[in-house]
Design brief:
429 residues, alpha/beta, 9-stranded parallel β-sheet, 3-stranded antiparallel β-sheet, 40% helix, 17% strand
Length: 429
């Protein structure tokens, strides 16, 4: 948009595609920034699941951008309109930049409910149909710092016809034009930034067309949709993502929706993606699991230990044991355990008095043992989710810190070897 404060300053571009830098000028006053590659803070309704704001902010190096979703907010529109001061104040958030997306990346979204004029979101009360007018009215009541434009994202399934994919791209561009027009005529949204959405299913030509046409519009960044885990083969995702990022301007950020697994993050960073949604730690927590993969690229153990939450050497016995207990792990199913976590519900942890991850500096690992978290899980204590979410959030954001450090020091290949050891272990089983 004209007068946008959001600026992406790149310090390095590696092999013409991998980008390291800082997204500056975030927020209504432009005082915040976000390092890239990076991720947003996953908050479906303004709060990280299982954690209070005070508990959350005991963690270091959290992203300055919190994600909220219309699928959770839409049913509260009347309350927010009556409140008048926006969602940030309504939810009692700390000083944070607010990004509003259409769907919750960790929740299933039924297909078949999109029309030429509407899209649907799914809240706790069921389906809510949104026209562009209702969508923009919601943005005015939420008062985010930036938001994703309305889009037809129902073409992620592999059996979607070419005609349906083409219609999705056309609808999304039409929605974007209407949203931009309404945005420009709204005093309430002055200074708020808009991300255009790139669709196109699994058809290369439509992906490129969507990217080119979206880039012609006065948007501040781009959401790459329909490429989420489970929707397509990983190699095809990288091919499509690489083709899309070639068509997008260098000075605007690219946010990939629905991808969170560490190996996929690394592949997509190499394909030119800047930002990710951090819903993966929540999914791991809901499974009763703890993230446990290595991303320490520092040759100095003392230095690695002094920079929480960098960690760790993967305990291959843990990983192998969980593989045996869980059978073949399906890396394409977001509900299934992955090779980057350990299952603390397993009985063999009932007398394991080690921290969740050796070397992790989070509150859970400093104060509790695997056996205690196992006990909490099998007795259905709420504290289990709290402790696991603390650890998983710290571990995941620590991974992104290590990723940026690896790019800055030409150690991306070393980081990939560290992270992918878990996947290699799985393949040997």
């Amino acid at each position: 948009m004209a007068g946008s404060r959001m600026k992406l300053e790149l310090s390095r571009v590696i092999q013409g595609r991998v980008r390291l830098g800082v997204l500056k000028g975030l927020g209504r006053t432009g005082q915040h920034s976000l390092e890239v590659p990076g991720c947003l803070l996953y908050t479906p309704f303004g709060t990280v699941p299982h954690l209070t704001q005070d508990t959350l902010h005991t963690l270091s190096k959290l992203p300055r951008v919190s994600q909220v979703t219309l699928s959770n907010i839409a049913e509260h529109q009347e309350v927010l309109e009556e409140f008048k001061d926006g969602f940030r104040k309504f939810a009692g958030l700390h000083d944070t930049v607010l990004y509003c997306s259409l769907h919750d990346p960790a929740a299933p979204c039924p297909t078949g409910y999109t029309t030429n004029k509407t899209v649907s979101v799914w809240g706790s009360g069921g389906r809510i149909e949104l026209t562009v007018a209702k969508f923009m009215a919601l943005q005015k009541s939420v008062q985010p710092d930036w938001y994703q434009s309305m889009a037809d994202g129902e073409t992620w399934q592999s059996n979607t016809s070419r005609k349906r994919v083409r219609k999705s791209v056309d609808r999304t561009l039409a929605h974007l034009d209407e949203c931009l027009l309404a945005h420009q005529n709204s005093k309430e949204l002055e200074g708020v930034e808009v991300f255009g959405v790139v669709e196109g299913g699994d058809i290369l030509e439509e992906r490129i067309r969507s990217a080119r046409e979206t880039a012609k519009r006065p948007v501040d960044g781009f959401c790459l949709d329909g490429l989420q885990t489970g929707s397509m083969d990983q190699a095809l995702r990288i091919q499509l993502t690489s083709a899309v990022t070639k068509e997008l301007p260098e000075d605007k950020p690219r946010l990939l929706q629905g991808v969170g697994r560490p190996d996929e993050v690394l592949d997509c960073v190499e394909a030119g993606v800047d930002l990710f949604e951090s819903f993966f730690p929540f999914q791991v927590t809901e499974r009763g699991c703890a993230l446990s993969f290595s991303f320490d690229i520092s040759p100095d153990p003392e230095r690695a230990g002094s920079t929480p939450p960098t960690v760790l050497e993967l305990n291959e016995e843990d990983t192998a044991g969980d593989m045996q207990q869980n059978g073949d792990l399906n890396l394409n199913d977001q509900t299934q355990m992955t090779c980057f976590e350990i299952n603390l519900k397993d009985k063999r942890y009932q007398d394991d008095f080690r921290p969740l991850v050796d070397g992790c500096g989070c509150y859970c690992c400093r104060n509790h043992q695997r056996a205690y978290v196992h006990h909490l899980l099998v007795t259905n204590e709420l504290l289990a989710g709290v402790l696991l979410m603390i650890h998983n959030t710290a571990h995941y954001h620590g991974f992104f810190v290590a990723l940026r450090e690896a790019l800055a020091n030409d150690k991306l290949d070393l980081l990939k070897r560290r992270v992918l050891r878990g996947e290699q272990t799985e393949r040997k089983e």
